[in-house]
Amino acid sequence: MCQHQPQRQEWPAHAPPDRAAVSQTSLVKAGRARENSAYVRKLLRRRQPEFAAALASAERYFSCLWPRGRQGAA
């Protein structure tokens, strides 16, 4: 091994996370994301109403093109 490179540390292997815990964490994160999005939209409507209206129009347009059941699908 080159003396200029730090030695590689061996990390302990972790057990896979519990699916129920991951699912609960995902739900919490999704809830926070919705709350944050709503808050940002509220500020945007207050401070830049023209841009907020254009954004809402674009959302409506694209939601018609992309069916709800396909969100996240590639």
What does this structure look like?
With 74 residues, this protein is an all-alpha fold. It has a domain at 19-65. 62% of the residues lie in helices and 0% in strands. It has 2 helices and no strands. It has helices spanning 19-47, 49-65. The longest helix has 29 residues, at 19-47. The radius of gyration is 22 Å and the shape is elongated. It starts with 18 loop residues before the first helix and ends in a 9-residue tail after the last helix. The mean pLDDT is 80.
Strand tally is 0
Please give the largest β-sheet: none
Percent strand equals under 5%
Question: Any idea what the radius of gyration is?
Answer: 22 Å
Order of helices and strands: HH
Q: What is the number of helices? A: 2
Terminal Cα span: 43 Å
Would you identify the regions where 5 or more consecutive residues have pLDDT less than 50? none
**Inertia-based shape:** elongated
Indicate the percent of residues in helices: 55-70%
Mean pLDDT: 80
Structural class: mainly alpha
Which features does this protein show?
74 residues, mainly alpha, 2 helices, 0% strand
